[in-house]
Amino acid sequence: xxxxxxxxxxxxxxxxxxxxxxxxxxxxxxxxxxxxxxxxxxxxxxxxxxxxxxxxxxxxxxxxxxxxxxxxxxxxxxxxxxxxxxxxxxxxxxxxxxxxxxxxxxxxxxxxxxxxxxxxxxxxxxxxxxxxxxxxxxxxxxxxxxxxxxxxxxxxxxxxxxxxxxxxxxxxxxxxxxxxxxxxxxxxxxxxxxxxxxxxxxxxxxxxxxxxxxxxxxxxxxxxxxxxxxxxxxxxxxxxxxxxxxxxxxxxxxxxxxxxxxxxxxxxxxxxxxxxxxxxxxxxxxxxxxxxxxxxxxxxxxxxxxxxxxxxxxxxxxxxxxxxxxxxxxxxxxxxxxxxxxxxxxxxxxxxxxxxxxx
Length: 359
Known about the structure:
The protein is of the alpha/beta class. It has helices at about 10, 15-20, 25-30, 65-75, 85-100, 115-125, 140-145, 170-180, 235-240, 250-260, 260-285, 310-320, 345-355; strands at about 35, 80-85, 105-110, 125-130, 150-155, 185, 210-215, 225-230, 290-295, 300-305, 320-325, 325, 335-340. The chain has two domains: about 10-45 and about 265-355, Aspartate Aminotransferase, domain 1, CATH 3.90.1150; about 65-260, Type I PLP-dependent aspartate aminotransferase-like (Major domain) (Aspartate Aminotransferase, domain 2). Helices cover about 35% and strands about 15% of the residues. It starts with 8 loop residues before the first helix and ends with a helix. It holds the Pfam family Aminotran_1_2. Keywords: Amino-acid biosynthesis, Aminotransferase, Histidine biosynthesis, Pyridoxal phosphate, Transferase.
């Protein structure tokens, strides 16, 4: 039989998938390090005991204990909370619920987190970008000019990878200009490191506001893959229409509920305190190193710095088993590396290795 007219499996794939460059997660990039400072994880493991033994049954779609505990923690009602497979699933659910492929667009402001574009492109939704201003704050006029046909706007605050908060008055102006036109998604993955900056108190004013949260950072549960979307009930109900029937496995829901008890939250706050002390130590030392041109202020568990000959610095540390995150290719971040705040020993390894670079 002739195969001349047969398409390969790749040819059969959707055009936008064939052209898609997948998100280069820290784990996908690999490396053989023993000091992993490229994924903004908490540096040491936290212990939990599984209490649910009903693995023969499917879990609830929205496990009650996890939802109730998170609502209590975030200061919202349970019906304003959706739990998902990491905040990454929340990013995608918002595109799926609000954007018609081939018709609507999302908008985001680089340099920022890479999954907004990947989620939209996978679904066949146009991505529009409005680069931030020189201080990495929002270009409100640029956003206003590009809003036609945009259904979802993503803003990460504190922003990954730059580490700074977006001005609250700018966020309010963005919410005002998008009212009745688009959903505004505030990605608060790092909010535990600056809790005073959360927008949860604004939900009652803005029916089109959604807030993304995660247990991956301050709660030290990156391996759990558990995130939350906070919004008004009308918006949450739309997301419930497109979420998978069982987004969380029973062990994940079990551990999430434990992490969100008063004891779990108190332990998280102690970890945050410790990370903030370690961040200060790292920043102070980075500022004394010759190959470090600039250390940017951070409200998170990572530090962005600009280096002389950053590519060779990155490779030299990589070869010593110290894995950082290279941000060179992001707009306005040439020469920048992002360093997760680890243990004191890990910070010291970085500092010593960088000092050796200048000998």
